[in-house]
Every structure is written in structure tokens, then in C-alpha cells.
Amino acid sequence: MKHVVGKRQFRARWLRALLGACLSLLLALPVAAASGASGYRHYLLGDADAPTPGQVRPGLLLMGGGDRNFDAMHWFMEKAGNGHIVVLRASQGGEIGEEFFNEVGGIKSVETFVFKDREAATDPKILAALKRADGIFLAGGDQSRYVRYWRGTPVGAALDAHVKAGKPLGGTSAGLAMLGEYLYGAMDGGSQTSPRALADPLGDGNTIETDFLHIAQLKGIVTDTHFSERARLGRLVAFLAKAEHMAGKPLLGLGVDEDAAVAVAGDGSARIYATAPGAGATVVRGGFAQKQTEDAAMNLDRVDTVVAGADSLLRLPEGRVERPLAQRSYAVRDGVLVALDTPMLVIHGGAGVEPGDLTADEEAEVKRALEAALRAGHAKLQAGASSLDAVTAAITVLEDAPQFNAGRGAVFTHDGRNELDTSIMDGASGKAGAAAGLHRVRNPITLARAIMDKSNHVMMVGDGAELFAKEQGIALVDPSYFRTEKRWQALQKALQEEQDAQASNTPLVLPGKAYFGTVGALALDARGHLAAGTSTGGMTNKRYGRVGDSPIIGAGTWADARCAVSGTGWGEFYIRTAAAHEICARVRLDGQPLARAADGVINRDIPKAGGDGGAIALGADGSVAFPFNTGGMYRGWIGADGVPHVAIYREDPLPLP
Ligand code: ASP
Which GO BP terms, alphabetically (predicted)? Predict the structure, then answer.
């Protein structure tokens, strides 16, 4: 075997010669080893021959992939008697070993072996190191390499023997994903997304492997990592379905959040080390009643999950959780993961508000109005009403509140009128209703709803829409009802600015800041159905007949089985990017987590095109997003516990569900 001395080691040797420094302190020795077809790199820090100071005890550390979880690492090192750690991986170098030795500290040595192929798994030097190791840690990377390089090899057997001998084993990210009796091997080189995994649970993309490691405490368990992206629950459910299909027995899923580590003691009792509030591990109860069919999207009436947090006690391999952080139930419908019995309502009162725009009293009024809207929608959801009813109820409250640019308090057009636009969409049925150019409908959202429910149309405008409203018994008011002095003055200012710029005869250019307070609501009801609605007065000084995005299905409003969006911003840009639909399309087709999809459209694409604004988004799995690129956006949400959460400016804290 040819040993190649790395540059770093070379420098270290010179330093040692020059300074006569203590040998054991400077043993940063990356040694590249290669012989014939076999290959690995080897790094050593510390004194591999020093006696192990403490007692070595059994332990399993399941880390979700985030770094710097030092408490968890200290637990692991202590289980290893603060002695000698061997890190195995199949990509990168000795970085994690350096972190263990220098930052976590308190141990005698860390040896890292970076595998380059399967042949290395029979290398006597590696096997000797594994045998000596007080603790073994499997780093992150590409788990398919671990499966390919180690399954059925002496390394696989050595890992099993290490655990059986009562010594601690840890893994993070890919190093955690491969520990269970059944595992997602990512064998096709991809990282499976939830939508794809659920679209064909038994399909080839869900590369479930078994007969790798045989760890008693993870028997019957499929682990998953980087779980803080809520988006991973769907794929774990699909993995479980496939693993159960292969195993012919009920299994459990265990998803560990990126900011958490599960520390399992020898008796199977486990506690969570969390580095972020609310982080934990999710146990997914398998034993699915419905068998899945080949080449078909997943359907499952119910799947129960329990989240273990920092104060919980988790027992493995049973998956029992004492003092759980949360318990949630889901269904899978045609490949869409849906939260059950956890109603959620999300609202906005418009983007564009800047710090300094409002007095303290006005801020308090706005917050009260947002909370009232949340409570009104929540009351519907609690009573078992549909998400459509909740959206309608919340928006009605916001339309009635003069603080927002919808219903009473709408902004004025160039010719001094209030011209209202609105829309609503039902995610379950795909039905929608919309109206534009209204001057007399007191609560435009109720007209949108009536158009959806009672007409054959999706969209009606102007006089025709108002005639239909009258026929439906919807309250009409004198146009002066919508007028507020504040909005009137805003128009006067805009007209003056326009005149000053002598721009009145040039093509319409609306400044981005000319909008304030469009309102929108999204709801997820107890049956897991989504709805979205939006209502607006449009933009100050808009030309007669101008229609913005708010009443346009797909631009300002969208709801389908998995995703709902309501936008607020410079409408022309929302129309041109089909913003609301685009967000949901990225979730559905590209498998993006909701927050990333929403951020991409609102905070990247729209500003790039020259627009600005914000949106709210709600997933059928209960995930929410509030992207905006203005100084503030009136926004809030209310969950099953009925506690409203609201915020105005960018800096305002808004806890997420
Ligand atoms: N998007 C609305 C429009 O362009 C305005 C707003 O959201 O404030 O009509």
C-alpha cells in the first residue's frame, strides 16, 4: 500500500521539527491510501494509542443533518468513554473529525476513513480501526454509496458487531438514513421529493433497501433525515408504504429534524437534543390499512404521527412517545398529503405598508381587525364548516374594516371611484368564482362565492355582476359607503404627483407603493380541504376599468388539493407571472417545499420583472409561508388552538405553526 503524504501533513511535520511541539497535538495527518482498485483516504487526529479514559457504553445517536449539536455530541463521546472515535464516510474529507476533535473535544483520537470504493470495505487497516473504535460515527453524504460499498461486506458486519458489543454508533444525514432495518437508499442518485414519492409509492424512485445493518433498536424502523423541511413527511409515508409492501409487516417511520438529534440509550429509551425551538423527531405509525397498488398514486385514509421534542421520552424500537410535543393525523389523497383535524386559517391585509406609515393607534386598530378576521374564520372551522366558509367569513370582516383596501376603505380610481375586484377558489373541487369592476356590492367576496356556487360562470364584471348580485339577494350599497377620507387624500396626492410629473397623458405607470391593504384568506378545514380568496380596491389612481390580479384565478388567487395562495402586490406583475398558480405548480410539479416555491415567485421572479408585493401560501399538509419584499405586510394565522398570531412590519416576530 502506497502512502502519499498530503501537503498539510508535510507542513505539519516541518512545524513540528521547527518548534519541537508535542507530537500528539499536531497529528493532523491526512494519509491518502490507495492500492490497486481499492481506495480510501485516512485522517487521524490525536493519540490513537492513549488508553480510553471512561467506560464505553451502548448508545445510538441519530442526528438529523444539522451541525453544531454539541450537547448531543458530548453525549455520544461520553458513551464512547471519551476515547477513540472512527468516522466513516464516502465523500469529502476529514472535516467532521476535526470538528469532533477540536470543537466538541474531550476525546483521545478521531480517525476518519473516506471510502472511494467497495474494495476498501475489506481493507484490514479499516477493519482493525473499526474493531478498536470506542465509538463509530457515520457522516453525511450520499447514502447510496454506503449501501453499495458496505452492504454484505466486512465493514457492514463490523458495524453490526460494534453495536452488539455494546459500543456507541452515531450517524447524521445520510449516515442516519441508512441505519434502519429498511432504508431509503437514494440508489438512483436522486433525493426523492414528497410529491414524487407519493405519486407512485411502490415505484422505482422509492429505492427502499434492506439487509444492511441489523440494529435491534431500529428493527422495524425506516429513518429519514433533514426533516425540518416539513416537506419530507410525505416521502417518509411513501417509503413506509413501500417498505411494508416489501416486508409484509407493519413498520415505523422516524424522521429526525435537521436541528435535532435522538440519543438512544442501551435500554432503548431516547431523548431529543434540539438546537432550535420546537425541533424534534417524528414517529410515523405504519401498519397501513390500505395496500397500495402498483403504478398508482398513494391513497391512505389515515396516518398518525407523534412528534418527540426536547421534553419527551421516546422508546425504541416500539416508537412510543411520552410527553409528545405534538400529535397529528394525515391522509394521503391521490398522492397529496393532507393534514386532518388541524384546521388552519392564514390571512393577509395587504403588502406595502412601511414602518412610519401608521400611528401606534392605527397599528393597534389594524391588529385588532386582523385578529377579528382570524377569529371569525376560526369559529367556522371549529364548527366543522368548510374552508370556503372560513375564507368568506374572514374576508368579510376585513372588507368591513376601513383599514384595508377592500370593501369599505378601498382605494380610489383615477376618476375618484371605488372599483372592487375579488375572487375565491375551492381547492377540493377546483371550482372558482370572481368578480371585477364592482361599485355597489358591499361584500364582494360573497358575490365571488355566489358566482362560484350559483352560476355557470367563473367571472363576471361591472353592471352584469351587480345585477347577478341583486338577483342573489346580496347586499348592495350606495357607492359612497366605500369612501374613506384617508383613501381620498391618497388619491389627491397621487394625482398631484402625476400632474407634477406631467405624466397624465403618457402610458400608465403605477408606482409600486401605490397599493395598500388588499385582503386575502386561505383555509384548511378539518377534512383537509383548502380554499383561497382575495378582495381588493386595486391600486390608487388606477385607470377606469383596470383589472388587477386579485380577481384573476391563477394570478391573485389559487387553490388546489395541495396548495392555496392569495397575493397582494403590483397586480400587473402577478398577472404576467401567473403568480399564485406558479407557486402551487412548483410545489406540485417540481416538488419544492411551499415556502421555497412562494419565495421564488414573490421574492425573486416578481422583483426581477420590476414588480413587488407579497403573498400568503398554505399547504394541505398545514405548512404556511408569508413571503413579501416590501417593508411590511399585514398578516396572521390561527391554528387549531384558536390563538391568533398577527404581524405588520418585516421585523415583527410571527411564530410559525
Ligand atoms: N394586487 C392588487 C392589485 O393590483 C393590489 C394589492 O394587492 O394591494 O389590484
Answer: proteolysis
Domain boundary residue, one of 116, 139, 172: 172
Residue nearest to atom 7 of ligand 1 (CA): 568
pLDDT at residue 511, rounded to an integer: 52
Name the domain boundary from 154, 172, 190.
Answer: 172
Q: According to the model, what pLDDT value does residue 7 have?
A: 36
Q: Which domain holds residue 444?
A: 344-649
pLDDT of residue 9: 40
What is the SS3 assignment for 86?
A: strand
pLDDT of residue 515: 58
Nearest CA among 618, 600, 602 for reference residue 532: 618
Distance of alpha carbon 99 from alpha carbon 82, whole angstroms: 15
Active site residues: 518
310 and 409 belong to one structural domain:
no
Binding site membership of 350 for ligand 1 (Cβ less than 6 Å): yes
Q: How much is the average pLDDT of 238-243?
A: 97
Q: How many domains are contained in the chain?
A: 3
Q: What is the pLDDT of residues 403-441, one digit of tens each?
A: 999 999 999 999 999 999 999 999 999 999 999 999 999
Ligand 1, residue 352: give the atom nearest the CA: 8
Residue 578 lies in a domain: yes
Query: Hey, whose CA ends up nearest to atom 9 of ligand 1?
Result: 538
Residue 498 has pLDDT above 90, yes or no: no
Q: Are 613 and 628 in contact (CB under 8 A)?
A: yes
Report the C-alpha gap between 341 and 574 in whole angstroms: 33
Pairing of strands 519-524, 344-351: antiparallel
Identity at 189, one-letter amino acid code: G
Give CA torsion, residues 637, 642, 647, 651, to 10 deg.
-90
Count of C-beta atoms within a 10 Å radius of residue 185: 23
| pLDDT at position 177 over 70 | yes
Q: What pLDDT sits at residue 510?
A: 54
d(CA 207, CA 187): 6
356 and 327 in a common domain: no
Q: Does residue 63 belong to any structural domain of this protein?
A: yes
C-alpha to C-alpha distance for 48 and 46, rounded to whole angstroms: 6
CB 630 less than 6 A from any atom of ligand 1: no
> How many degrees, rounded to 5, is the angle at CA 276 between CA 332 and CA 281?
40
**In testing the pocket of ligand 1, which one of 515, 566, 635 has its CB within 8 Å of the most ligand atoms?**
515
On whether residue 20 sits in a domain, the answer given is no
Q: Do residues 196 and 301 both lie within one domain? A: yes
408 Cα–ligand 1 center, Å: 15
CA distance 20 to 393: 78
DSSP 420: E
Q: Average pLDDT, stretch 142-168?
A: 96
Per-residue pLDDT tens over the stretch 44-98: 999 999 999 999 999 999 999 988 899 999 999 999 999 999 999 999 988 999 9
Does the reported pTM lie above 0.90?
no
Please indicate, yes or no, if residue 3 is contained in any of the structural domains.
no
